Each structure stands twice: as C-alpha cells, then as structure tokens.
C-alpha cells in the first residue's frame, strides 16, 4: 500500500492554496488520475494500490464519481485564482486503471475536459495490464479521447514474471498492442530488469520482444527493492538474491544498444522513444517542473511552487470528499535550496539536460571533473548544458551529488 506520506502543514478544508499564490498562465498544466485498484499485489510494488480485500468499504463501482468530486473542487480552487488553464496532458496511472470499465475512465476524462478543457492535441495516456486490454476496451478508450496506451509488459520470460509476481500471460502483451494499434492509439511498453534469477539472456529476450512489437516508446526500469514489500522480506530472509548492481549496469547498456539500434532514442535515463513526437509529454512535465494536479488517493500535486498530497486510503479519500472537504493530507512550499536540488536531480536525467547557469558556484566547479571522468558530455557543457553520457546515466546519483555538494 505504498510508503508513508511526507509530513507537511495542514491544508484548509476547502483545499485553497496559500495566500499570495500566483498562477502563471504560460505554465503548462497536467492532470494525473490515480486508480488505486489491483487484482493482486506484485511482490516488488511500493505504489499506493489496493486489492479487493484491502478496500475496507471503498467501492470500485463508485470510484469515478468520487474522483469527479475532487475534479470539481480543484476547478473551484484554481478558478478562484486565475482563468483555468486547459490540460496539456492527462495520465491515468495506478494500480490498474483498466480494471475499471472503460466508461468510468471516459467519465473521468469528460470531467477533466468539462472543468479545465484540453489543449488541441493533448496527450491522454492510460496504463494497462495486458490481460485487461481487448479490441473493445481499446476502441472505447480511443473513442473517449485517449491517445496513448502504456502496457505493463515487465518481461517476456515466464520465470521472471513469476519472480515479480506478475500474473499476465506473456502472449497477451502482443494481443494488447494489436488492440491498441487497431484503435489508433500510440503504444508504450514498460519493462523491469534485474529481477531475482533473471539473466542477461533473459533480459535480451524481453528487449527483443518489445522491439518486435514495434512500440513507439519503451520504459526500462532497474528493479529497486522497497522497504515493506514482499520482495524485500524475501531478500532479507535469504529466499532470493538481491539485485546485482554490475548485472543491472550490463542490462542497462544492452537496453541502450538494442533500443537505439531499433530506432528508439533515449530522452530520459529510463525512457526511449521513436522520435520526439512519441516522448511521454506528461512525464516530461514532471521532470521539468511544470504544474499538475494529481487526483485520487495518495496522489501528489504541484501548483505554482506549492506541493500537496492526498490521504492514501480510498475509503478515507471518499469520506473526505463526501463531506465536501479536500482530500489533501498536507502541503509544503519547498525553499530555494530544495527547489535547486530538485531541478538538478530531475533535469540532469533528460536528454536536453540542465542549464549550467542554474548551478551554484561549487556545482559549476565540478563540471570539468565530470567531463574528465566521462560522465558529462563536454560539447554540451561548452554550449551551456549538463548532459549525461551513457556512463553518466549509469552513475546519475553520483553526478547529482557532485553538482550539488
């Protein structure tokens, strides 16, 4: 059910933002819609998700109506400060959004459209488990305005899926991709590498399958062991081995080689796309620090420098909204130092990099050494940008420390 929420100051019951908040009409506005339901809990997952036995009275069939109450609340809060900005991106994440009927997802999207509007050509993404995508589901999503399906493939190898507690049949990934293509949707597939028992050959097989699907976008994430998960307990007991850092580095390099050769270029440390037009614009908004409102239990938001986050459990979320109150649990306004650190942390991860001018004095002094160590591209630095080399992507945390200490 996810890690603990951060500690912050209380949010007024009406959800109003701090006095003096000024909305920049030129800043893009994104919407995240969290659907916290899963059929089973994967052993590695630390997201705020719930199986049917964990809902404690919250109902999936009422969820769309509950979330729409928060959409209406957000419209009132933001509309009281400035003319409402249409959403540039909408992202249904989870959990498994496609556990809800497509009609519920369509109503949620209609609520966003009716409240805020959508910019022409807005990117509308739905995450999906391969087992939940049929021709009919994909067609209904496309008809509602969805433009992009992000399919949780994770691996093409049965024993790796079993190690991750993934229950979908590997062949259903191709079925889901075909359904999305028939409906005219862009397709992204998500992969995870470094699972217990996964070899480099296993990982190659998954990459080759993802490439054979002719995906527009591939996300490939190294398995991270999160405290409190089933997998963390298994490793602590010695039941399965911990991820091998050297093997994961080899896997990353193999991904970059194979995806690059197939015409998918990296644009963020863990993301590759077939041309700029297929990049995830929603995730780029997170990495570049624009505004977004996250709807749903445990969802986080960032509006004009204020960060706030919702209560985690779907039942508590529904109770607050039924009472006419914000579901926000707390908020904070990061100071200048925290914002500078976050900018370095996030913007060094993307291909366009971080402007050297944004570095403080000590960080600027570290650039020459990072170039000499092969972690930062020298030519880009001369042009005023900090851009990671492939070796730098593997050691991104070390680069960030050098630029901020």
UniProtKB/TrEMBL annotation:
Q: What keywords tag this UniProt record?
A: 4Fe-4S, Chaperone, Cytoplasm, Heme, Iron, Iron-sulfur, Metal-binding, S-adenosyl-L-methionine
Coiled coil region boundaries = none
Q: Which domain of life is it from?
A: Bacteria
The subcellular location is:
Cytoplasm
Location of the Radical SAM core domain: 23-265
Q: Hey, which family's this protein in? A: Belongs to the anaerobic coproporphyrinogen-III oxidase family. HemW subfamily.
Protein name from the UniProt record = Heme chaperone HemW
List the source organism: Microbacterium aoyamense
């Amino acid at each position: 059910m996810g890690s603990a929420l951060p500690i912050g100051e209380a949010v007024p019951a009406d959800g109003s933002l701090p006095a003096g908040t000024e909305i920049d009409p030129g800043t893009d506005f994104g919407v995240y819609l969290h659907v916290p339901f899963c059929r089973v809990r994967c052993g590695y997952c630390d997201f705020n998700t719930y199986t049917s036995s964990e809902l404690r009275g919250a109902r999936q069939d009422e969820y769309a109506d509950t979330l729409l109450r928060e959409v209406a609340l957000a419209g009132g809060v933001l509309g009281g400060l400035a003319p409402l900005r249409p959403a540039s991106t909408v992202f249904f994440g989870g959990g498994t959004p496609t556990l809800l009927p497509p009609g519920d997802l369509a109503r949620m999207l209609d609520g966003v459209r009716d409240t805020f509007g959508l910019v022409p050509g807005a990117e509308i993404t739905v995450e999906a488990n391969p087992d939940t995508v049929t021709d009919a589901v994909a067609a209904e999503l496309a008809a509602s305005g969805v433009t992009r399906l992000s399919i949780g493939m994770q691996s093409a190898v049965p024993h790796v899926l079993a190690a991750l507690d993934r229950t979908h049949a590997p062949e259903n990934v191709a079925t889901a991709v075909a359904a999305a293509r028939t409906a005219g949707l862009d397709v992204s597939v998500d992969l995870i590498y470094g699972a217990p028992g996964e070899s480099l050959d296993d990982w190659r097989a998954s990459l080759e399958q993802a490439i054979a699907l002719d995906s527009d976008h591939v996300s490939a994430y190294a398995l991270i062991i999160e405290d409190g998960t089933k997998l963390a307990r298994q490793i602590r007991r010695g039941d399965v081995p911990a991820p091998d850092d050297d093997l994961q580095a080899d896997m990353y390099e193999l991904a970059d080689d194979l995806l690059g050769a197939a015409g998918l270029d990296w644009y963020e440390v863990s993301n590759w796309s077939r041309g700029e037009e297929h990049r995830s614009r929603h995730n780029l908004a997170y990495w570049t620090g624009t505004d977004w409102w996250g709807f749903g239990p445990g969802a986080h938001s960032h509006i004009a420098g204020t960060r706030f986050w919702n209560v985690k459990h779907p039942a508590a979320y529904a109770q607050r909204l039924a009472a006419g109150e914000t579901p926000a649990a707390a908020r904070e306004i990061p100071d200048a130092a925290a914002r500078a650190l976050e900018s370095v942390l996030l913007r060094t991860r993307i291909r366009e990099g971080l402007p050297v001018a944004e570095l403080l004095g000590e960080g600027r002094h570290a650039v020459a050494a990072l170039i000499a160590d092969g972690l930062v591209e020298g030519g880009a630095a001369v042009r005023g940008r900090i851009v990671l080399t492939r070796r730098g992507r593997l050691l991104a945390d070390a680069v960030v420390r050098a630029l901020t200490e």
